[in-house]
Amino acid sequence: MLVGQQGYVPEPYFLTETLRSQARFHDPLQNSLFSHSGSVQGFREWSSGSGRNSPSGNGVDSPLVGDIHLPTLPIRSSQPIGHASTLAPSKVKAPIEQEHPSSIEVSPGVHEANIPSLVTPRSAVPGTSGSRCIRYAILEWESLLDSSNVQMEDWIRIATEIELNYATFDAFVILHGTDTMSYSSSALSFLLEDLGKTVVVTGAQIPLSQLRNDATDNLMGALTIAGHYIIPGPSS
After folding, report:
1. pTM above the 0.70 mark?
2. Is 216 a catalytic residue?
3. 126-154 residue pLDDT tens
């Protein structure tokens, strides 16, 4: 959400671009502060070594420079993917909008696109040895909705999107406005009854676009709870 003339309004690809530019949400080279703060020794090696000063050595939330090519993940939707338009028409497209792949219809009413994945920094996982990270992808709807306008068909669509991507992902995070989150959560609890995978619904009173916000902790907490941890490596 960004500040509009009448309050906060949704903006296509703002979320994806913001998360990709912040090392706490996207650290593909695993060379940020967050990936080296698990121990005193790790931090000292990072802060005094070449990692911090390398072209992509982002300290905390600096934008990535020379971002590496990341594996894509196949995402399916009941609607076309990658053709979003802003609420206020503009001839200038954001970089992520220009790069976002378009979908193809793989079967009647089912659209698929290969979307670049994001990966969190390494972090310690309770009950396991070593550190791991979360790889995830973001599906944005066309058009983005204000949560105060959510209808029954939108709840059905959310459940359908989970069904279409059930085999690909280990868990799901639904980013939702706070106005009607309780209603959506209640509806989904019935639509997704006896589901075998975790679904987390989260939102924030103040969006990521603002310096002081609750969205950072809420989203990171949701990813941590729902995410599938993988060990970073050449094949990840």
Report:
1. yes
2. no
3. 555 667 889 999 998 887 887 888 899 99
